[in-house]
């Protein structure tokens, strides 16, 4: 940490985590009306978001709020400590969580599984916040594992055979990954005797190289599963379509990113930039990241199912974060960190839109979306905005992050990486624009949007016939509102990227801590 | 003061004998009085024996010269640590006799009771004499007293099979007695003396040689037959199974031990004389002991009759003892000697418990007796304690012996026999598990069992006392050891080959 | 008297013992077995008497004027006891045989064994 | 002289013993056994053990034979082949 | 610091007395329960009252009687023994509560509770055994006392299971006996109060035989493959017994024995030189992986748990075999961790069987809707086995892995990871079915007037034990919690050497 940062004892990080946990109990509470439950859950999440924003303030003021949760043994303790990167990620989680929650009130149908959905959703949210604010590896691991496992319940929410298969695949991948992370944590403890995150890392430089390498690759592979690094990405394309849309948004936006966030934590707060460079693993990581970007994007091209396409897109986008980490330059890292936030809202928007289309028209596949733009103009507009952001069209937020990434790459002379970045952007255009095209411009086919599962899935709204022919019928505001809000944030982050308190400033702070001002 | 208890030595033998003779007279009017009479006699004898043991504990071994003739010409009675066995022996009798009071109801008519108790007293007197005699010829005489009364006791139930079993026992027993007589004569021919201590001294002068070897071998074979080691065990199972249960307890628990005690006595003499190289002999004992353990267990597995099963288990246990003797290391011999007593206790428990069950139900096979534990819980529990004990599972009396014999095996560098012992014991447990399973964990198939009642107190109390002792002596295993240890350690310097 | 270098008495004892043993072991009739046992017993007694004999000695009866060596009295005492014991054993055995016959109607071991 | 007596006696002993073993008629066997005992008595007498000899004559040859005879009377006379 | 105190003997004696009273007056339900609970509480009190002393390093000793000259039945409540006693006396209480509910209306309850108390008595006896002889006495007694519980149902399968159980354990006991006897023969003492009583100059073959005998002897109960055969078969026993067998008494006694052999008979230094533990460690590692793999294929709930137990027990053995302080800590702490988690699982499985009659994994689809609290407890326990942080299982795996690294045996870390995955592989499907599969047919609803998903006496122990699993995971450090005791124990094992965490 940079010397100007002072640790202060504060309960706020704990409260941020605890509020959604209260929501778990609320979700399980019987005898509450749906409305009352919804408002309380939203209120709790909103409270959490406020706290997260407050924490950003604290961080910007040069303080580092810290709260000790548990002392399991003398060496194993759990602490929440908010630094710039954590605050940034935490606020993202809270914000996207609030949006998705609101969206979910409309999306998830009533029934016995509804309560379960919200309970697990809130729990996941809490744990992801815990990941964001974790002050040492153990805390990180605990929350990381917890939300990974809890996610299972949300992936299989639909309880269709496909969903269960996806859930099984998911949990298998995640557990292997989690175990590797645990091994890494263990090795770290063995080598360093401590687990607390410190900017610049704390692994002893003079430890045996083999053990250091083992620890490092345990972490990278372990988190890489979550971060969907190719070839560890297998679960992503199955899990996303299976999960309900609001959760897909969160999954893609912040939870997959938790893997990338973990890699960042490891590289900068555990291993340290210096050691990371001297270990000589960076080129390998770069290669993996590059492959992930390209392969993810190429595979996305071939997907007919919209949510699968978006899932591959997530894989590709996560590659940017890893790429940024592997290059270990302060500029590019700032871009990477900011991309984490920006991508969250963009991808959130995309999934929200995809969910709305499914909800209203039952359309899951690209071919079924023809003409939906006319029927659901706001939704399609939001989708378009987010898609353009993903491609990196100025002045949207995606442009900002890619700009910083590119500039950072040039700074350190990583031309090849820049090429990959550009290729990724082009491919993003190639797999997202056809969707936009189909929604707006493709000729409609009669009956195209009456998907087989539409009636059952749509609940109240009854999709009928050709979307275009029946005029505009947007989804209810509980769902449309969050979608538009997310899209708006995409725009706002692009426009106001330089403002105080916006992601970029925090990312710079974080990078300052990691690179020691260099 | 010392002389006081030493004086009691001949009376301890004479008392039961005289009691036996007087039994018909005492019980002439009321045959059932015979049991009480016998019990009284045995109680007094036990009191005397306690005095003897007390004397032994305070002053060490002591002698009594019958008729005041000095050694080596007179008849010497000698009370040493091995003789201390008479006290537990008598105490077991004291427990067994009350059991027989009611038990005999279904075995024999009342008018035959005096004969039965006379034989029993004779048997006890014979064994006491056997333990305390100091010369070889009396050893033979008392053996014959014991044997004769045992033959008769086996047949006392009176049915034909019993007579046949007794006759089988008799033929083999008589041959072994003959061998013993032959050995005694041979020893006399060699040394011109029969007093044990004296013979030992003179043997040393005579030195070794085939003649001494022949005498020793004759003794050994004779005692091995008496103790029913495999393969000369054939007489035992039928005799012990068919005899009335109190008699079975006496026979299996005590009479077979005649062979062991006799062997120890012969050892005392031959080893003190140090004239024989007995390594090969010991090795033979070890092997036969091990084989006995296994074969006894093997046969027992196939028995359905509980008393036959118990009888075969005696063969196994004798195998333990012989194995321990053959190992010839201090711990092994201590263990074997303690097992002489502990096995008597355990076997008495088992036979009496089995007897109680047979008495109450009239059934004696495992398949008939299923589920009996529900109706006779205390007796069955005693049976279970006995079973666990005889296998040598801790913390029972049987375990102490197993521990020491195994320890001896390792001590003498014959570890495989330690293994054989321990796992042979498990082999034994197989059939006891069968028994316990039948008693406890299977549904009754027989109406008699369903309606059975717990045995009367005069039968139950002895069983419970014995079972309790099995447990107590497991924990307080040091008590019998303290008697045996000095004797064994005294014996061993000449022994270890 | 020596026969082929062996004391004839001992040869006799062994032969008699063997004859008795043969009867005891291989005869089926219980009475014959018992007779065999008796033969064995006498053989052993004969051995004891023989071994106790001192060549040229007088009987161990104290008569004025005779002098040592005597035959040792102890073996003879042993034999006397032995004879008494043997008779007792025989008596018990015969009683048992009578019982067996009364119960099963036979005293042949072969047949007794076939009984249930 | 003594040797001749010995030889005759011992031969007789063996002969009687074998006869006891071979006789099918139990009564005959018992009678021969009695003869055997008496022969033994003579041998012992000759060996310088007169008291033993007398006991054997009375008990071995006398009582035992009587007991056997009683038994035969109460059981059977024939040995089954 | 040794202090003569009667409490180490009173603790087993209380249960023993209780067994006697239950047998005597057990026909009356009231008195049966009264005595059982009274004894359970007194016993817990006794053990707990020694705890402060133990943490201060006091060792309570009591020589009961000289069993055979030179070796007595003696009790010694050292830290490790205290640890084990604490676990078993605590779980006795809960299992008793559970058993009362579970055995409601069952047959032969007098016998059941009587032997139950006996088992606990002997378990605590094992825990407090001062020497190998006392240890063995109680060890074998336990074998026998458990038998009536295994065959409780008295069906042919139960009898068969009992037979197999006895065959295995008695043969094992035979090996243990031989080993103990050999130790006595070569060392002249059997005390467990020293960090090793054998000396290296006895020659490797002798020591190897001793080690093999003792390890086989205790390994049978600890279920080390290939000696595990009895454990899945013994599952026919009533659930409280399975819980007792698998979580507390029998299997733990085996594992406890193995650790005692390693630490107190041979001692770390000697074994470090001899290297006997290396094959043991590999065997344990093999067991961990192999039995987990087998567990994957089991449909019967209790059998699946049984194989899981086999796997878990080898953690203890592995921890002990690694011969490092950290691994030892793991081994010891796992005694408690596994106990609480596995007993929770068995309780839940038993509750399911009692409430719905379902015994197979394939039958419990959607049961979480019917029995939410139980399944939540089960899930917690499952997480613990997987080694998720905040649960007890994590602490074990953490220290075990560190120990492996400390011993320079990183491949065991790999084993641990694989095992964690396999654990997840066989537990999570259960959780999944319970929560995410629709019920095949509607679960019977609660009877009128019943507020809980199952009997209170079943539910209460489940909740407490599950809570304890979490508690162990998060407060291991608190003085008086198992971890602190384990540290005292480890300090005694590695007296002088090694760094204690």
The gist of it:
Chain C is mainly alpha-helical and 116 residues long.
CATH class of chain C, please? Answer: Mainly Alpha
Q: Which percent band covers the strand fraction of chain E?
A: under 5%
Query: Whole-number radius of gyration of chain C?
Result: 19 Å
Total strand segments of chain C: 2
Average pLDDT metric of chain C:
77
* Chain pair with largest interface: C-D, 50 and 42 residues
The major sheet of chain E is characterized as: 3 strands, mixed
The beta-strand count of chain E equals 3
What count of structural domains of chain E?
1
Structural class computed from helices and strand pairing of chain E: mainly alpha
Biggest sheet strand order of chain C reads: 1-2
SS summary, helix count of chain E: 20
Report what the structure shows.
The complex is a heteropentamer of chains A (518), B (497), C (116), D (81) and E (501). Chain A is 72% helix and 3% strand. Chain A contains 20 helices and three strands. In chain A, a hairpin with a 5-residue loop joins strand 2 and strand 3. Chain A has one domain. Chain B has 497 residues and is mostly helical. Helix content of chain B is 77%, strand content 2%. Chain C has one domain: Helix Hairpins (Orthogonal Bundle). Chain C has four helices and two strands, in the order E-E-H-H-H-H. Chain C has a two-stranded antiparallel sheet. About 5% of the residues of chain C have low confidence. The interface between C and D is large, with 50 and 42 residues.
Which features does this protein show?
heteropentamer; B: 497 residues; 3 domains; two-stranded antiparallel sheet; 2 strands; globular; C: mainly alpha; Helix Hairpins; 69% helix; 3% strand
List the helices and strands and how they pair.
The complex is a heteropentamer of chains A (518), B (497), C (116), D (81) and E (501).
Chain A (H helix, E strand, L loop, with lengths): L5 E4 L2 H17 L5 H27 L2 E9 L5 E5 L2 H24 L4 H22 L3 H19 L5 H32 L16 H18 L9 H7 L2 H27 L1 H7 L2 H20 L4 H22 L2 H32 L10 H4 L1 H15 L5 H16 L2 H26 L13 H5 L18 H19 L7 H13 L3
Parallel strand pairs in A: 1-2
Antiparallel strand pairs in A: 2-3
Chain C lengths: L1 E2 L2 E2 H19 L3 H23 L20 H32 L4 H6 L2
Antiparallel strand pairs in C: 1-2
Helix pairs in contact in C: 1-2, 2-3
Chain D lengths: L1 H21 L3 H21 L3 H25 L7
Helix pairs in contact in D: 1-2, 2-3
